[in-house]
Amino acid sequence: MLIAGNWKMFKTRAQTEAFFAEFRPPPGTRVVVCPPFTSIDAAVGRGVPVYAQNVHWEREGAYTGEVAAEMLLELGVEGSLVGHSERRQHFGETDHAVALRAQAALDAGLRVVACVGETEEERQRGDTEAVLRAQLSVLDAHRNLIVAYEPVWAIGTGKTATPELAQEAHTFVKSLIDVPVLYGGSVKPDNAEEILRQPDVDGALVGGASLEVGPFAAICEAAARVAKL
Ligand code: PGA
After folding, report:
1. Measured by CB atoms within 10 angstroms of the end CB, which terminus of the chain is less buried, N or C?
2. Whole-prediction pTM value?
3. Residue range of the domain that includes 69
4. Which tens digits make up the pLDDT trace of 41-75?
5. How buried is 27 (Cβ within 10 angstroms: 0-12 exposed, 13-18 middle, 19+ buried)?
6. What CATH number should be reported for the domain holding residue 219?
7. How high is the pLDDT of residue 158?
8. Ligand 1 centroid from CA 140, angstroms
9. Which residues form ligand 1's pocket by a CB distance below 6 Å?
């Protein structure tokens, strides 16, 4: 079981320090946090592995605004998200770029959480499987690769996929690529355990509920309970 907190563009260094002054990951589950780049060094060394939210595929070069895997490794970062739907929606991230980012990060020795998921429109059109197939077609299984299934309509909206729907999508993802699969999209303390109990749900990628210590710790505790079953 892995619980990954995706802080998105939240938390200054001071706020990161305040979080870690209080947060203690419960035993029995793996926990990682993904702070914004500027707060990474305030998060490293606080007892929780730190992942970046994105990583470029070149080692260095004229890529304004991007950060390379080696730069992250130098800070003590252990992994990175790639292909988050917010990158795809707001920054034109393509499947091809996601593939390049994932491969370069894995080659450099980072763990990778590659995010996939359909929009509401795509689900209503009956295209969910086609979308997931296309997004996953560019990724190869790797021992350091995890996929996060995040239906775009459930991110930050309070609309969670039902546990059955999450299970169905995870089974489909696993039929295409043999790696652990996290669920993401409005995971909260009150729905985490039910979702995490699904047999093909290997953990959660948590946005909003990872920003406050109380709710995030409660989700981590739910994961530890499910891991024991
Ligand atoms: P949310 O975000 O938990 O706030 O819905 C999840 C994510 O975007 O990774």
Report:
1. C
2. 0.97
3. 2-228
4. 999 999 999 999 999 999 999 999 999 999 999 99
5. exposed
6. 3.20.20.70
7. 84
8. 24
9. 6, 150, 155-156, 184-187, 205-209
Of all protein residues, the one whose alpha carbon is nearest to atom 6 of ligand 1 is 207
Helix, strand or coil for residue 138? coil
pLDDT band at 228 (very low <50, low <70, confident <90, very high): confident
CA angle 112, 94, 175 (to 5 degrees): 55
Hey, what's the torsion of the CAs at 50, 197, 182, 157, to 10 degrees?
A: -100
- Total count of domains within the chain: 1
Distance in angstroms between the alpha carbons of the first and the last residue of the chain: 12
**Which residue has the CA at smallest separation from atom 1 of ligand 1?**
207
Percent of the chain with pLDDT over 90: 96
- Which residues are annotated as catalytic? 84, 150
Examine the pLDDT at 156 and tell me if it is beyond 90: no
